[in-house]
User: Which sequence fits this backbone?
């Protein structure tokens, strides 16, 4: 159960990163006055959050898969 909770939390980090990247993308075309000064932070933070969320979930899943015992 703790592994499942950790993966779900990491997926929420990925979701937050995706939202930040979407806001950064919108800032390129619309809302330039509001989001313009923050585009770099949105892109870098979004990419970092997606990388941590997806990489962490992959790493936990890989370690958990090694502990599974297969039957005869």
Assistant:
């Amino acid at each position: 159960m703790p592994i499942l909770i950790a993966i779900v939390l990491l997926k929420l980090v990925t979701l937050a990163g995706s939202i930040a990247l979407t806001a950064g993308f919108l800032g390129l075309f619309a809302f330039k006055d509001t989001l313009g000064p923050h585009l770099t932070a949105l892109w870098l933070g979004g990419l970092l959050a997606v990388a941590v969320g997806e990489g962490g979930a992959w790493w936990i899943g890989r370690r958990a898969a090694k502990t599974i015992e297969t039957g005869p």
Observations:
- Helices lie at 2-29, 32-35, 39-66.
